[in-house]
Amino acid sequence: MIISPKKIIGILEQNTLTLIGTIMVVFIIFIGVAAPLICPYDPNLMNIPARLQAPSLAHFFGTDEMGSDVFTRVIYGARISITVGLSIVVIAAGIGCFFGSISGYAGGKIDRIIMAATDMVLSFPSMVLALALTAAMGPGLFNTMLAVCIVRIPLYVRLMRGQVLALKEMQYVRAARTFGESPAKIVLRHIIPNCLTPLLVQMTLGIGDAILIASSMSFIGLGAQPPTPEWGAMIATARIYAIDQWWYAAFPGLFILITVMGFNLLGDGIRDILDPRSKD
Amino acid sequence: MENILSIKNLSVSLSGKRGIVPILHNISLEVEQGHILGIVGESGSGKSMTAFAINQLLPGGRKSIVDGSISFCGEDLTEKTEKEMTKFRGKEIAMIFQEPMTCLNPVFTIGRQMKDVIMTHQKKSSKEAEKQAEEMLEKVHIRNPNRVLSCYPYELSGGMRQRVMIAIALSCSPKLLIADEPTTALDVTIQAQIIFLIKEACKATGTGVIFISHDLGVVSQLCDTIAVMYSGQIVEVGRAADVLAHPQHPYTKALLASVPSFTPREDGNDTLSAIPGMVPDPLEVITGCRFAPRCSYAMDICHKKVPPLQIFADGYSLHCHLQKEVEN
Question: What residue in A sits closest to B109 (Cα-Cα)?
């Protein structure tokens, strides 16, 4: 693939939004990884006398109804959200691409079966289906991830199938066949690398989306359960204090905003970075 | 000389949405070692289909109905399984195409793609393959092989890409090279270079070449033998000089007459002559000669009976009732 550090820097210099997106994503990942070093407190440490304090030097983002430090909890929340977002997208894209490429390459009956299943999943509103699936499997962060994953798979099946169908007719794929390359090698060498750009863009945008859905599920009580420092779950508890203790709901919300927006801006930038024709 | 390829009575029908469509009717062709066979004809006459039939890469895949035999170095390709065919494709039978702009994978360097093909068919280490790729590029007269190896396809011009394609095609020293209108998309000076290159490669290594084109000028310069195709049939085969100088079949005559010329004609008629009508739809049922509806010499028998194959000296053969009439 055609990625040189020089080119990435060039694109970041030209495109302010991509730069902002990248900074946001790097920031969120950094605080997630370095959480124990940054945070002065334990995320689940309770200190009832110090409950619901406004932001101060001791507690940057104030404290919650148990007296835990909101700053610490928000920082640890980045860990959870990034992990959740990444694993949902990687697993959904992996499974989706597998079936999508089979569907596009094989065609015929296999294609019709896979597409029928895909259309069935897509005909539900994704949030409602994720909700129903989680409710059926029982609340919890892992089940939420699984449900969101299932809801997201058809997106990648569709994307991959379309790409494969278009690429299959490309002259270089036909040429590869006349050079005696096997179907498996043609998919690996010629089809997948040429699908990578739209796929990576879709995946990056998907991380933001996945984090948003997972947080929403936690917000309505199906995802992460309260002691877990998950942003959606935190906002859910903070809801009742929102009028008098604004900081409790505002900071987790702000971090959801930063993360989702960061990944969305980065997704657009990746398109430019991976285009072989954009300048070095 | 030894025949590399001999096609005998090949008929191909594709089964598609419109039912079974016959696209090739009773084709017989031969390619000798180190010889260049030109196949000419209008668009839709089945030139490329003949090529794909040899490669067993017909659009319908294994669903196409193939009758007759394609004997390649003594082995009948129509009887091979898909897996056995991959050993022939690229190694024994290589192919180059009309659109060099889209024949190379845009996300890999030229070197990587050449190495891929070389290593598919030969047991070579990555280093050896790279060395061979460089040699092949030198053979197709690319000035800076080392630099080109690290280029992406979009960095090369059409002519350069076609050279790279030829280098890839010849890298496993195939016995047969099928060139499907390789010069159509290139400008005239580059055309000449590519033609020269194919000729050179063929004479040096003894590779047999099937050169498909609708450009009679290109074919006349390059080919030893010419086969003229019309609507899935071969109407006339012979030595290039014979066919071009003394065409016997009315279709070949009409085709030659419709080549634009720079010098004014002797008879003062400057209008560009065209063959009336269109190539018939493959589904159209024609009882007699398939060219009869457009032929200005057509007789009653032409509409009723398929013209028989007449074989003459020097490998010349013809499918036409007219010649028989003259002889009688």
Answer: A1
